[in-house]
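Readers of this paper often ask what the protein records in our data store actually look like. Below, we set out a record of this kind in full and without editing:
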Amino acid sequence: MATSPSDRFYEIVRIAPSPEDPHYVQGCTADLYFPVFGDVDLDRVAALGSMHVLLDVDGTLTATSGRISVDPRTKQKLQEIAKDPRFETLSLATENRAHAEDLLHNLGVATTSLVFQPWEAGSLGTSWKTTERFWKKILFELDCFDEPHKAVLIGDSLVRDIQPAQAAGMKTVLVDRIERRLRPRDSISFN
């Protein structure tokens, strides 16, 4: 028997990296790992020597599908990073095509933060997050092209975030991916 839309609900789940995950890369490890973005230890991140914090959005700060909504712990951690004097900038590196101001507002981030999105590279095509060009342009914009270790990326995907940022010379922090999945209501267990 088919279920109607009212018989289903969206569940937010966290997925740790594993070899079965399409976001997994054998042999790729981040400089730091935290299971939840809200648990990111800013002292350990600062110890990496990075002054510029770049954040992936989808899967790291918000669920991979659906509207941009952020839990209170994530908003609190964003505010802590923004106010921490050890970090000069807090920016977003995303392929989410949402309007930048709306994205920043929904995340509770200052509108002075930068949002880096894919860009047209002429005959080279679009520079997506998986290309080194994407990260090199960000490093140039942050004025640390010659010292890429001064930038740290916090992301949820080894394939789309960690590996390409490391290839550009950046420091990296991996967090579990957040996904929004549709489930039947009768699958809820209250035990």
